[in-house]
Design goal:
Layout: E1 8-11, H1 15-26, E2 34-37, H2 41-51, E3 54-56, E4 64-67, H3 71-83, E5 88-91, H4 98-105, E6 110-115, E7 125-131, H5 137-147, E8 151-155, H6 161-169, H7 171-188, H8 193-213, H9 218-224, H10 231-241, H11 244-262
Parallel strand pairs: 1-2, 1-4, 2-3, 4-5, 5-6, 7-8
Antiparallel strand pairs: 6-7
Helix pairs in contact: 3-4, 6-11, 7-8
Family: Belongs to the pyrroline-5-carboxylate reductase family.
GO biological process, one term: L-proline biosynthetic process
GO molecular function: pyrroline-5-carboxylate reductase activity
């Protein structure tokens, strides 16, 4: 390890922590300015090899810290980080409120809470942030400087974080289930596995890029691809008959309720 205080300490070298490390290094951050705290020695060695960052098996002081541990450990880790004199903490632990983390951190360390999603692994994530009552514009700007390395960042009040978690945080899982179901349906219609895989994977990639880059609403894009009495209309009719809109509403509501429960 280096004797210089790192610019950022990332606590947790799992998928999301690693994604953020990669995004930062690829985005121009000096690898030597980042220290990753990870208990697993094999993961530490991999992080050092892949990105050139410093690693540690204990929490160390830094100018700022990102907590990427399991929700049940986040409060204790936040207290550890604050005790070392770290000025700002960014937590991506699901369901743990900024107020709860701020209480554990005391009054000299400012806590920002974030909810990223797994497309951050390919630097196409979307992350919502909110802060404790102590946070100001500089704290939010700092959090954004870290998280824009892996995608888009939006600011929301904490009262909306459960909904954000349900829509964007859990959303990739919903889409992957639809992709899984479409693959099974393609095979059932007689398509070979390799052809079905290409069709479905590129379908999601292309439709996602189109949706993200178009000024038109999802409803308008749907209408443009739906000819009267055509094949798309026939398929959509089945989805409407199955109450797909109500299903998705219930899906998001269930996830939001679970997020709220986790924060209690």
């Amino acid at each position: 390890m280096t004797s210089q205080i790192p610019r950022l300490v990332i606590i947790g070298g799992g998928n999301m922590g690693t994604a953020i490390v990669g995004g930062l290094v690829n985005g121009g951050w000096a690898a030597a300015s980042i220290t990753v705290v990870e208990l697993d020695s094999a993961k530490r060695a991999q992080l050092e090899s892949d990105f050139g960052v410093q690693t540690s098996d204990v929490v160390v002081a830094g100018e700022g810290a990102l907590i990427a541990v399991k929700p049940g450990d986040a409060v204790a880790v936040c207290a550890q980080v604050a005790a070392l004199g770290t000025a700002r903490v960014l937590s991506i632990a699901a369901g743990i409120s900024a107020a709860t983390l701020q209480t554990s951190a005391g009054t000299t360390t400012h806590v920002v809470r974030a909810m990223p999603n797994t497309p951050a692994l390919v630097r196409e994530g979307v992350t919502a942030i909110c802060g404790s009552d102590l946070c100001g514009e500089e704290d939010f700007a700092w959090a954004e400087s870290v998280l824009t390395a892996v995608g888009v960042v939006v600011r929301v009040p904490e009262t909306q974080m459960d909904a954000v978690t349900a829509v964007a945080g859990s959303g990739p899982g919903y889409l992957f289930l639809i992709a899984e179901s479409m693959l099974a349906a393609a095979r059932a219609e007689g398509l070979p596995d390799d052809v079905a895989e290409v069709l479905v994977r590129q379908l999601f990639r292309g439709a996602g890029i189109l949706l993200a880059g178009s000024p038109e609403s999802p409803a308008t894009l749907r209408e443009r691809v739906t000819s009267p009495n055509g094949t798309t209309a026939a398929g959509l009719a089945v989805m409407e008959e199955a109450s797909i809109r109500e299903i998705m509403h219930n899906v998001v509501r269930a996830a939001a309720s679970r997020s709220a429960e986790m924060g209690k």
